[in-house]
Design a protein that fits this description.
With 259 residues, the chain is of the alpha/beta class. It is built from 9 helices and 14 strands. Strands 3-11-10-5-8-9 form a 6-stranded mixed sheet.
Length: 259
C-alpha cells in the first residue's frame, strides 16, 4: 500500500471497500456523518384495522399503485422499520405485499436499493435527478397517481412537476433528515459531499480551507456548494459512492491536469 499522500473527509458513511480502494491509491479517508436519518412511523401506512391473527395486510406497494423514491434512505427505512421485525405496533402486525411493485426512482444507489427491497419489481422509470425522473414519468403518459416516499428535506422539483402535469402525488414522509454538525480538523485536501443538507450541516460548524477541493455527488449538491464557497468543486461522474471515490482518486492522481 502506498503512503497516504492526501487526506479526505467524507461527510457520509462509506463502505470499507471504498476506503480501502482509496488507501491503495495513497488517499486516507476519514468519515463523519453530518446527517442523521430518523425513521417516522406513519399510522396511515401501518393501518389500524386488524384482520386474521391481529394482522393487517397492506397492498399499497402492489400494482396498479406506483411508488416513487428519490433517496435510498426511504427504502432503508421501509425495509428496517415497516417490512422488518419492527413491523409490530400496538399489537397489530402489518404485512406489506411487495412482490408486484411498480417503481419510479433515482438511478444509482437508490435504484440498486429498490431492486433489493422489491425483488422482481417493475421499474417504470429511472433517472439521475428528480426533474429528469419527473419528465420520464410524465412521458410515459399512463401515470395518473403516485405514492412518493421521502424525507423532511426532499426537494420540490419532482412533486411540483408531476402535479403541474395533472398527476396526483400522495406524499409519505417516512424519515427525518437531522443535521449532525461536528467540528473537524482543518487540514483536509478534499471533502466528499453527498447532499445539499450535508453541505449546510458541515458549514454550520466548520469553514472550508481555501486549498481544500470539494467533491459533489451531483448537480444539486454542487449548486449548494457554489452558494457558500469559491473553492474548486469537482462533480462526480455518476451519483454513486464508488463514482465519488473514483473521481477523487482520479483528481489527486492527475492533480497537475487541473491546475
Amino acid at each position: 500500500m502506498l503512503n497516504d499522500k492526501y487526506r479526505i473527509l467524507s461527510t457520509r458513511h462509506l463502505t470499507d471497500s471504498s476506503i480501502a480502494v482509496a488507501g491503495d491509491n495513497g488517499i486516507r479517508i476519514d468519515v463523519q456523518d453530518f446527517i442523521q436519518i430518523k425513521p417516522v412511523i406513519l399510522p396511515s401506512l401501518k393501518g389500524n384495522q386488524p384482520g386474521w391473527n391481529d394482522t393487517h395486510i397492506s397492498n399499497i406497494f402492489q400494482a396498479p399503485n406506483v411508488s416513487v423514491f428519490t433517496s435510498a434512505n426511504a427504502l432503508n427505512v421501509l425495509k428496517q422499520n415497516y417490512f422488518g421485525v419492527r413491523g409490530l405496533r400496538n399489537g397489530l402486525r402489518t404485512v406489506f405485499l411487495t412482490d408486484n411493485a411498480r417503481i419510479c426512482c433515482i438511478s444509482g444507489k437508490t435504484l440498486e436499493k429498490a431492486k433489493a427491497v422489491f425483488p422482481g419489481a417493475e421499474i417504470l422509470a429511472s433517472s439521475p435527478y428528480g426533474s429528469e425522473l419527473a419528465a420520464a414519468m410524465i412521458a410515459l403518459g399512463n401515470i395518473s397517481e403516485v405514492n412518493f416516499y421521502c424525507g423532511t428535506q426532499r426537494r420540490h422539483e419532482l412533486p411540483d412537476a408531476l402535479k403541474q402535469a395533472g398527476i396526483t402525488v400522495n406524499e409519505f414522509v417516512i424519515y427525518e433528515n437531522i443535521p449532525a454538525p461536528t467540528v473537524v480538523a482543518d487540514g483536509y485536501d478534499g471533502i466528499l459531499f453527498f447532499s445539499p443538507s450535508a453541505v449546510k450541516s458541515y458549514l454550520s460548524a466548520n469553514r472550508i480551507n481555501s486549498k481544500t477541493v470539494c467533491f459533489a455527488i451531483g448537480r444539486t449538491t454542487a449548486t449548494e456548494l457554489r452558494e457558500h464557497t469559491d473553492n474548486k468543486i469537482i462533480m462526480s461522474t455518476d451519483i454513486s459512492e464508488d463514482s465519488m471515490v473514483q473521481t477523487a482518486i482520479f483528481y489527486f492522481n492527475n492533480i497537475n491536469c487541473y491546475e
